[in-house]
Amino acid sequence: MESQPHNRDISGNTALDEAQRVKRFEERIQAGERIEPKDWMPDVYRRQLTRMISQHAHSEVVGMYPEGNWITRAPTLRRKLGLLAKVQDECGHGLYLYCAAETLGVDRSDLTDELLSGKAKYASIFNYPTLSWADIGVIGWLVDGAAIINQTPLAKCSYGPYARAMVHICKEESFHLKQGYEIVTKLAQGNSAQKEMVQESVNRWWWPVLMMFGPSDSDSSNSEDLMRWKVKLFSNDSLRQRFVNGSVAQAKAVKLTLPDPDLRFNEESGNWDYGTINWDEFWQVVKGHGPCNRERMRMSRKKHNDGRWVREAARAYSARHRKNENEDGKKYYSRKRRKNAALGSFFTGKIRKAAHSRGQPTRT
Ligand code: BYC
């Protein structure tokens, strides 16, 4: 469907009142149509998407810190290359997502300010420390595994730029999952110290990973809007359950134990029942009081300051190039450049004529 400016509805009629516009908007969503940046959308939809996409982008960026910490200490060159590529992918995911958020009319620098001021959230999981090499494997297996379960449905969400970004991101996440599970498998088949290290890592990460899916449905304040407008296609609890169901078999395959004495298969529901999540811990971390929140924010501010010269150089470069474009975005050449170009064609013409008169072939 053709895109329309914000103040018009899909038929271009500006006189429609708000209720009619919302109705049409919802009909489009129910019909499975994608909403594109220039289409009319309710303010709440725009605000919710901006919140969710920007927080997702921040999570990708902050998510680089705990893993980046291990690049210099990876045990082999192959592992170092794999980890380097993974961290680089996450940086790219942040970039796609900031671009997707900008299609909603916000400025990336404002989103960054919100992160640095502590106003915007990012995924709770990245406020936990990476204490051993096994953590890199377990993050790839469980954290990226959880991300895939959460994000694959987002590739079918109602907002076009977010959905398209997620297709690419999810493909890369599945490589991350494989590299993580490979590290975990090797360690789990290794000597007793390696087995102990990987089990200890699973014990620390399991519960925080379950919290990644967000609060239980009854406490999820944003789900109602997001599910009505098909941004979220499944609830927090249903995705968490899907993740638990898949992880049990994966843990068993590598002879690791998931640290939950209440984990048992429920014949009736066909699901693995699990124990109670410590929601106090979750909210403490979300509110900035987790084990590494201060360190992550310190690092984010440092990186932002260290990168100032790059942003300034990029801005100066783009300003210089913009000066060479007229209002229609067409290339504008300075008088000096036009004169040189004219002289160039004058001389080229003279040379061609001379060559022609000598009977020599000329390039056209
Ligand atoms: N951490 O109403 P709810 C990755 C907040 S990147 C912190 O259920 P919603 C990866 C929530 O923001 C992982 N805060 O929210 C990267 C809300 O507060 P506000 C990030 C959380 O949006 C690198 C309040 O709690 N993934 O995987 O309906 C390497 C109430 O929650 C968390 C995404 O961002 C949390 N875990 O649902 C490896 C995916 N959970 O904003 C891996 C896209 C909730 O109202 N996002 N809060 O003040 C989503 O799917 C949804 O936003 C969520 C939360 C399921 C995360």
Would you write up a description of this structure?
- This protein has 364 residues and is mostly helical.
- It is 63% helix and 2% strand.
- Strands 1-2 form a two-stranded antiparallel ribbon.
- Helix 2 runs antiparallel to helix 4 and helix 6 runs parallel beside helix 8.
- The chain starts with 17 loop residues before the first helix and ends in a 7-residue tail after the last helix.
- It binds benzoyl coenzyme A.
- Benzoyl coenzyme A binds next to helix 2, helix 6 and helix 9.
Provide key terms for this protein.
364 residues; mainly alpha; two-stranded antiparallel ribbon; 63% helix; disordered N terminus; binds benzoyl coenzyme A
Outline the secondary-structure elements.
Layout: H1 18-30, H2 43-62, H3 64-68, H4 77-102, H5 108-116, H6 133-151, H7 160-188, H8 192-211, H9 223-228, H10 236-253, E1 264-266, E2 271-273, H11 279-289, H12 293-306, H13 308-323, H14 335-357
Helix pairs in contact: 2-4, 4-7, 6-7, 6-8, 6-10
Bound molecules: benzoyl coenzyme A.
Benzoyl coenzyme A binds at residues 51-52, 55-56, 59-60, 63, 90, 121, 123-124, 143-144, 147, 150-151, 211-215, 220-223, 226, 236, 286.
Spatial strand sequence of the major β-sheet: 1-2
Helical content stands at 55-70%
Total E-strand runs: 2
Structural class: mainly alpha
Largest sheet: 2 strands, antiparallel
Bound compounds = benzoyl coenzyme A
What is the count of helical runs?
A: 14
Task: Give the termini separation.
Answer: 45 Å
Name the helix and strand elements from N-terminus to C-terminus, one letter apiece: HHHHHHHHHHEEHHHH
Tell me, briefly, the overall form: globular
Question: Mean pLDDT, nearest integer?
Answer: 90
In terms of per-residue confidence, which ranges show pLDDT below 50 for 5 or more consecutive residues?
1-6
Measured on Cα atoms, how large is the radius of gyration? 27 Å
Strand content: under 5%
